[in-house]
Amino acid sequence: MIRILGLSATLPNYLDVASFLHVNPFIGLFYFDSRFRPVPLGQSFVGIKTTNK
């Protein structure tokens, strides 16, 4: 059986996904960190303050 899953997003819980798919993290899991990106990934957080009425 061959299963291929390609993800094109930042995924902080990639180990959980591999476990869910029953992938051996030492053989079948490939992780590419930010060193492999041609352009740095920018992250920003926007806080929104709301009031309950």
From TrEMBL:
Record Gene3D superfamilies: P-loop containing nucleotide triphosphate hydrolases (3.40.50.300)
GO MF annotation terms: ATP binding; helicase activity; hydrolase activity
Signal peptide coordinates: none
Entry-linked InterPro entries: Hel308_SKI2-like, P-loop_NTPase
UniProt keyword annotations, A-Z: ATP-binding, Helicase, Hydrolase, Nucleotide-binding
Identification of the protein by name: Uncharacterized protein
